[in-house]
Amino acid sequence: MIGGVEVDKVDSSCWVYVIESIVNNRLYIGCTNNIDERLKRHNYGRVRSTKKDRPYMLVYSEQHGCLSNARKKELYLKSFKNPSYLRQYIGAVSSVGRAPDF
User: Fold this and answer.
1) What single-letter DSSP state applies at residue 5?
2) What pTM does this model have?
3) CATH topology for the 7-96 domain
């Protein structure tokens, strides 16, 4: 497993996702090939970086056809240094539909 993505499933569709802590509104950006299972792992405390801020809810997800495109989008979302800019981007993309491919 590499960053929540099973290595043998790299060629299947991958998801970029943003989850938000219900406790303190902290955002976490990640990439996975199974978004439902990954969210469960976050909420069960099986992800070290999100364990203390549980529970989380999914606030954004975007499907990509391959891991490399999903990783590029993940890095782009992580480039928003201010969480309010990320929230604005997520809101704008959600209201329009789909973000451009990377």
Assistant:
1) B
2) 0.81
3) GIY-YIG endonuclease (3.40.1440)
